[in-house]
Amino acid sequence: MSVDTHRPDPELSFSQKELFDLAVAWIVLSVAFALLLAPIHRADVGIGIFVTMIGLSFVTVGVAFLLHELAHKVVAIEYGQLAEFRADYQMLFLAVMSALVGFLFAAPGAVYHRGRITVAENGHVAIAGPITNLLLALLFFPLMLFPGLIGTIGHLGVLINLFLAAFNMIPFGPLDGKTVLEWSKPAFALTFGVSVITLVGFILIFGFW
Length: 209
Prior knowledge:
- By secondary structure, the chain is mostly helical.
- The chain has one domain.
- It has 7 helices and 2 strands.
- Strands 1-2 form a two-stranded antiparallel sheet.
- α1 crosses α2 and α6 (176-183) packs across α7.
């Protein structure tokens, strides 16, 4: 008797709940990054700069966060999983609170997936997000060569994507790094190492913004 190992054909779709959660996480994470980079609550910057930073964060965080989660979802679906993003409202609150004290705990939610999956496939799903952020950092980097607003967007785009890649590769709790480490120590070491080294190097050379 043969066993049917066929997996369902991949289908990328979004429920209303998923779109709502993505929107909420996007907005809150953008505000958190703005508070971190332009701490108006410490009277270090004026309202104009803070509002500008929210706008810049909305664009750059939007690209970095949404494509990070989309990468998880696409790879999970390719492996025959049912996958949807769900915001974690406690973690979103923590993101804002941590930004107020000078550090950002950026774990706004996750793509939850279910179905038959191997350890390696699960590792591929997890690593897809940080790898996407590293690639996005490369794409944003040339924009830094331009003056004015475009250059600032490029700078923040690189910074935020490198931060998200490094942060998510921490092998702790629900973060991607723990799943990647369980799958492959070399893949974890390479991705985590590149993420941290490039983030630290970028900040030392170019600053925060």
